[in-house]
């Protein structure tokens, strides 16, 4: 960190801006945060864009174009700490549905002349391209977790963000398990906590907006083990896994693993 107020930058890639809006929705806490850091680049809130380097960068959105891939490498170079926020930045987002289809066909249906559309065949998380210091999941992220992560990095400590699944949040709220009691399909056992178990609290199953939750050993959840308990047809199962974190859940379903960037450095392509 610099001797003066540390600098904070917020960046957008392919996304809906919802995670950036979560930062703005912090309201009173944002005023306190603004007193502790100098917001040097945040185009969602201001047209001021001071040049780097930056002490902390928050990155929303996935990498979907060649320009994106080049720009994220530059952001990594000028950022002391890089934190990805939201399902798009941590798992490729709902736009990662393209990873399992024909992108050229999509482009031909949407654009009159797709020859001028520069896009990648996949939508990938930031960690697939550069080293990430911390990932904050959710669609959108939880503002309390965001404030905890920012406070932790500003204070030079490890963020205290839970690694347990949504089922723990259900127990804390006193929710009746919708899957056991009513047979409602629910992804809570394999979904990362952070939402406060909103959906099960109102009688519907969790649909995984916070992405896969690691188990106690740090491995990805047993998605394939849960699927038979959902009592769904293959088409229904595919749909329930094909939302905000489609690439991450389908990786788990197939028994694949991707690096855990929740606070631990790891080597990724620069």
TrEMBL record:
InterPro entries recorded: Hydrogenase_assoc-protein, NADH_UbQ_OxRdtase-like_20kDa, NiFe_Hase_small_N_sf
Protein name in UniProt: Oxidoreductase
One Pfam match: Oxidored_q6
Keyword entries, A-Z: Oxidoreductase
Residues annotated as domain NADH:ubiquinone oxidoreductase-like 20kDa subunit: 16-152
Native species: Actinomadura keratinilytica
């Amino acid at each position: 960190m610099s001797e003066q107020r540390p600098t904070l930058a917020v960046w957008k890639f392919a996304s809906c801006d919802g995670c950036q809006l979560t930062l703005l929705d912090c309201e009173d806490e944002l005023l306190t945060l603004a007193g502790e850091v100098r917001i040097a680049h945040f185009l969602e809130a201001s047209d001021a864009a001071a040049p780097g380097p930056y002490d902390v960068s928050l990155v929303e959105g996935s990498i979907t174009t060649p320009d994106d891939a080049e720009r994220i490498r530059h952001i990594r170079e000028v950022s002391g700490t890089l934190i990805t926020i939201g399902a798009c930045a941590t798992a490729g987002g709902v736009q990662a549905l393209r990873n399992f289809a024909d992108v050229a066909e999509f482009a031909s249906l949407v654009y009159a002349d797709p020859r001028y559309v520069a896009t990648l065949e996949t939508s990938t998380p930031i960690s697939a391209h550069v080293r990430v210091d911390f990932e904050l999941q959710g669609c959108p992220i939880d503002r309390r977790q965001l404030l905890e992560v920012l406070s932790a990095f500003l204070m030079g400590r490890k963020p205290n963000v839970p690694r347990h699944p949504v089922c723990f949040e259900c127990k804390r709220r006193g929710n009746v398990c919708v899957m056991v009691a009513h047979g409602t399909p629910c992804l809570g056992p394999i979904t990362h906590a952070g939402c406060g178990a909103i959906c099960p609290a109102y009688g519907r199953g969790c649909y995984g907006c916070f992405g896969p939750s690691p188990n106690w050993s740090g491995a990805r959840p047993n998605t394939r083990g849960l699927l038979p308990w959902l009592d769904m047809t293959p088409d229904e199962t595919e749909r329930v896994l094909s939302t905000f974190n489609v690439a991450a859940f389908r990786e788990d379903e197939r028994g694949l693993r991707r690096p855990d960037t929740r606070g631990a450095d790891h080597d990724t392509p620069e």
